[in-house]
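Listing S7. Sequence submitted for prediction.
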Amino acid sequence: MGRPVLALDIGGTKLAAGVVTPAGEVLSELSSATDPSSTPTDVTEALLDLGSRAAAAAGVGFGELEAVGISFGGPVDHARGVVITCHHLAGWEGVPLRDIVSQRTGLPTAMDNDANAAALGEVVFGAGRGCRDLIYITVSTGIGAGLVIGGKVHRGANSMAGELGHTHLVPYGPKCTCGRLGCLESVASGWAIVREAVDALDAGAASSLRSIPRRELSARHVMEMAQTDALAARIVGRAGECLGLGIARAVNLLNPEVVAIGGGISQAGEVLMAPVRRGFARYVMPELAQSMRLTTSELAPRWGLFGAAALAVREAL
């Protein structure tokens, strides 16, 4: 396959489209904001328009492309090409987005959730290029994972594999968004980091974080101040070590060649990765750690674009 592919990415706040070669060269890339009040039809039309303009910017028409890949920000039924639900946009349950896009473009199309797509993207274009067994972990507002086993995305019995954020970590720990107590997401995600900071400030802790209004405080603020602020450093250190423990459990179970960490919070650098490595080293089986690589994604911040392109290259045909 030598012709470029169309990559489409639907996130909670942004749509993106790009034309990418099988070698990973981005020939064009466009994005637009997502209106939370938009219907699935509105979003689909906006996405197709973006894709058409991205193709034109690359100097090609749909007929000159090989395939389409769609990275969707929520659970999908991969086999049927249907959206299961979307946590950021309303009304998507049961939408057959893959077939709609395929019919409108005239091209073979593959769709998957953003974590699975990004995992395949790392294998085709990124930190796991050429490997057969990889775990991709996205750390942002929440925590998710995509699994590539034997060179193929592992989706599980009903396309729900990879819910690393909802594996149990802390007995009787904080309440998670899923309703259970002590999930990895409840102690190491973006919202968990903000919750820890707010609780500490409400309890009277001294910190430069007090200069930020509570309603505006974000995980990014905590990460940035962790270089110089003791409270922020303690919160990030605890979250990082918990994340390292969660990764160690996944590695002990699956024995991958590479673990790649992506998502917005992963871009904090060593302030996060140093405690992640400490937690990982404490709990991983040494024999497994010696045979694998723990790294940040090489595709930041284009996880969705390259993930969608990888779906087109590997699966649409």
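Caption to Listing S7: primary sequence and predicted structure tokens for the chain studied. The longest helix spans residues 230-254. Residues 5-124+302-314 form a domain with the Nucleotidyltransferase; domain 5 fold (CATH 3.30.420.40).
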